[in-house]
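Why do we bother with holo predictions? Because pocket geometry can differ from the apo form. Keep that in mind while you read this record for S-adenosylmethionine.
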Amino acid sequence: MSKRPKDNTVGPWAEEKLDSLRRGLDYWTTRLKKKTYWEQVFVDAFAGPGMSAVRSRHADDKPAHASGMDDIFASLLPAEEADPVEQEVRYLKGSPRIALELPNPFHRYIFIEKDPERLAKLEGLKEEFHGRRSIEIVAGDANQALLSLLNSKFSKRTHRAYIFLDPFGIQVPWSTIEALAATEAIEVMINFPLGMAIRRMMPNSGDVPKGWSISLDTFFGTPDWRKQTYEEVTDLGGTRTVKFADSEERLLQWYRERLGFAFGHVSQPQLITNTRGGRLYYLIWAGPHPAGLTGANYILTMKSRGGPKKPAPSR
Ligand SMILES: C[S@@+](CC[C@H](N)C(=O)[O-])C[C@H]1O[C@@H](n2cnc3c(N)ncnc32)[C@H](O)[C@@H]1O
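The structure, written out:
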């Protein structure tokens, strides 16, 4: 297994993800600005360090183990792109800082992270915003922390929350999604890691190793991902398992439908690619309110509608 480096760099595509998040949060906080009877909470469940160096174009497609991916997923990736990092050109504000700098801030911020070094950086961010923002940093697993939040005094009568679920892989089980949706008070922006993790766990042969199969069952909340991915084909050579040519579209569509069923509303997906056009992951919004859907669809389809060409500058 590869070791996970601690360089805190991100690929250039992170800019696009963070731009959509910024727009989504801005829309949410503006929409709810006058509804101060609810405590408005932002939860960054996979917060990261809060600031990262952007890798150069040549370094951006290198294996995920060099970009901080968790060991299990890093080990699945091909090692064909071993370019050294050429230079770190600039820094990018991470999701916690983006949320803290919104013109209409949330009442409360919860940043969850399990990596000690990134936690230390988040503590620095908390110190920087001391007296201006109410920030809690939770060390540990995102799913446990989210369930604890729901079991605290969080309710539809008193709270509204926007939760960013931005893991490297399939670390958000369907049970967590269902628990968030059941509150009817939470909107989520999800990183659906189709290219980063899921594709690599589903070989063409259909021989998915037992451990991965169990992880995929947990992620999707059912073993039915198999039906979206594989079919049995019988010909002169006998019966064999074949992967659908459009298995990724099927999985994406199916996952979105299930999100829509759980939350009430689900957005169009925004595809995030690497600099060579390889599909990495999709951003998907889900929530209980149609007004949230209108904004999310506008933001997440912006690029496919032709603009903006470049992400908006940080506020
Ligand atoms: C993709 S990065 C987050 C980047 C951040 N959202 C941003 O855009 O600036 C994922 C982060 O989740 C953390 N992480 C991975 N598994 C986790 C878990 N089970 N619970 C909490 N944090 C986790 C990693 O240490 C990493 O910092």
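Residues 95 and 265 are 23 Å apart (CA to CA).
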